[in-house]
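Continuing the series of single-chain predictions for the mutant panel. This is the parent chain; the variants come on the following pages.
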Amino acid sequence: MIESDIEYYFPERLDEAMSNQGIAPSDFEDLDIVSASSIKSYLDGKTIPNLRTAVKIAEFLGVSLDYLCGFGMKEFRAKEVIDPRKAPWL
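Parent structure:
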């Protein structure tokens, strides 16, 4: 996944998570997580948050940072994890 993918998915996933829970941009500001104007900017796809802010947003919404960035379980299962003890070259 490249940065442009994250810029695409973040607004979509943020909006979905907020909508599912009935959370407004002002709710983030009320809890001193991030300003409402920043949330609106993320939702519009104009900017993306830094890592610290993204983690706070994910924690508040009760979702993973992977989810907000567009990663899904299907993508993780598609990548095979090689157990070094069973590597074919050993």
